[in-house]
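Exercise: predict the structure of this protein bound to zinc ion.
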Amino acid sequence: MSWKIEHPCPQCGAPVELEETDRIFTCEFCRNRLYISPRETFQFFLAKEQPGPELYFLPYWRFKGMAFSCDELQVTGKIVDSNILAMTLPHAPPSLGLRPQVLKLRYASPEVPGRFIKPEHLLAPATACGCSSCAAGHMPALFVGEIKSLIYSPVSVRGDWLFDAILDRPMCQLNDGALEGPKTDEDLRVEDQISFFATLCPQCGFDLEGEKNSLVLLCRHCGSLWQARNSGFENVPCDFIATRGRGDEADMYLPFWSISADVSGLPIGSHAELVRLANLPQLAQAAWENEAPHFATPAFKVHPSLFLRLTRMMTFLRNNPVRSSEPPKPPLYPVSLPLNEALESLRPFLASIAHPKKSVLPHLLDMAFSLKDARLVYLPFTLRGEELIQQEIGMSVQKAALSWGKLI
Ligand SMILES: [Zn+2]
Ligand SMILES: [Zn+2]
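Solution:
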């Protein structure tokens, strides 16, 4: 479930409502169009219309992402979407529940009256996950986390009671000084959380195009792709796979991260060894003995089990389709999974392909990937009924799976 954030337009000040995953900010009043680049952790607060005195904001960590649990038989994935209190305050609600879906969020800033309490605990996704195997500490789940943020919820102190400042209802009894111990954050600045910049191609100055949630934007004029880095755009190397016929025959191009990386912590020194790990020796080609392992993961969000299936198909692709650097006319599906998360997903992927899994499980947590090369590869798909089909490699993705992925 995506949350709604309200933020004034940096140019005209009109209130603009954003989805949590939006990267393009469009003001309906002044037609300003900007790219939103998150800097660090987003810090939001639940707004109270009439802030009173003695207002405190309790910190809650919010985590949303894929969680994979691995055992000797299989790797299973699920979506985790939860929030937990980030401080010790007996009897306070341990979670905000569904409340942030109902109320609007705003970026926390020093102008907001009240005291923001700094989180005392680091975000521990294992706690957010809530599954029994994580809780028991047997085989902790692997997280491919996409969203980590802090949400502050307002409370007020009346006598020795803490009141929920939004509902104006008593929440819990307050021990003496319980809110005096924790440090408050005096210097929350919106500028540290987000920056805005024009959606113009750094190479030729043309307007960049892309859906509002896309992490990568396209310049049709010079055929280049761009992603945010610090306060500007950096070029993303990419290839477009050609269709057998004309490129225009495709209905949609889906993006994949093509990654070449050295793997440490596991005896996988070459791509051929990766193929043997998956027990597919018939695929191994002589040239792969000297190549770093290469992988290809979806660059968009889908259910974890489909994500692993597509990664497997793309990583062990046998044929080498024709590539072009010219962007095709059909729409490019938005990139919603950043490269660093794609790298993180290689851990559960390796566990999912390994035969036997015993050889990999003990190393899951200490394996590391050092990136040698990464680029986006766009594959053409044609729409048949409710399915998108990639004929050359025999891949199909349900339209519903993509729509569902947009909600993650
Ligand atoms: Zn505006
Ligand atoms: Zn350009």
